[in-house]
Amino acid sequence: EDKVVQSPLSLVVHEGDTVTLNCSYEVTNFRSLLWYKQEKKAPTFLFMLTSSGIEKKSGRLSSILDKKELFSILNITATQTGDSAVYLCAVGQAGTYKYIFGTGTRLKVLA
Amino acid sequence: EAGVVQSPRYKIIEKKQPVAFWCNPISGHNTLYWYLQNLGQGPELLIRYENEEAVDDSQLPKDRFSAERLKGVDSTLKIQPAELGDSAVYLCASSLGVGTSGVTDTQYFGPGTRLTVL
Description:
The complex is a heterodimer of chains A (111) and B (118).
Chain A lengths: L2 E5 L2 E5 L4 E8 L3 E9 L5 E6 L5 E4 L2 E6 L4 E6 L8 E9 L5 E3 L3 E6 L1
Parallel strand pairs in A: 2-11
Antiparallel strand pairs in A: 1-3, 3-8, 4-5, 4-9, 6-7, 7-8, 9-10, 9-11
Chain B lengths: L4 E3 L2 E4 L5 E6 L6 E7 L6 E7 L2 E4 L8 E4 L6 E5 L8 E8 L12 E2 L3 E5 L1
Parallel strand pairs in B: 2-11
Antiparallel strand pairs in B: 1-3, 3-8, 4-5, 4-9, 5-6, 7-8, 9-10, 9-11
């Protein structure tokens, strides 16, 4: 059965800390891995990682994909209270546009 | 560019009543998804459309759920009759989809409809 597992389930840190969120997957016909940030509403897109793009960076956020070990990490440096959200990982399957989501990591950043 | 539009944003109904959700995807996006998201869980796919064709509805409980995307643009998801366990957020998402040069499979989500069944 295809699955995406995120860890930890929740995390509480203080402003300025660095956090690493994990996403491991067992999905047939891997196509891409997407990271989303979800606050109180719809998920907003952060990164897409594929075989041709296994490392992405945007400001304080960065992500890598290890296709051999079947995982990805999302790194946030110098965290701010505005980073508090649920971070979702989704894996897309080749040949379809189906996405399988993990349950998310709930991050809370304290001032 | 306008994002994915969903309505209503909130809906409270009694069990056994019907309910419908509407979604208008980003202009030009051929692929449309309906997801269900329970509290503390990731989104779970209900149905995916490529233009007006439902290409993946294996997770849609067809005894009570139905969906349509008649002209390949906006879509409606219906539940009839609603049950207590249907309380959740229903998310619509769209992406450029198949057959577009420089295909990107980034999905863009709408704000969701929070359904409460009493």
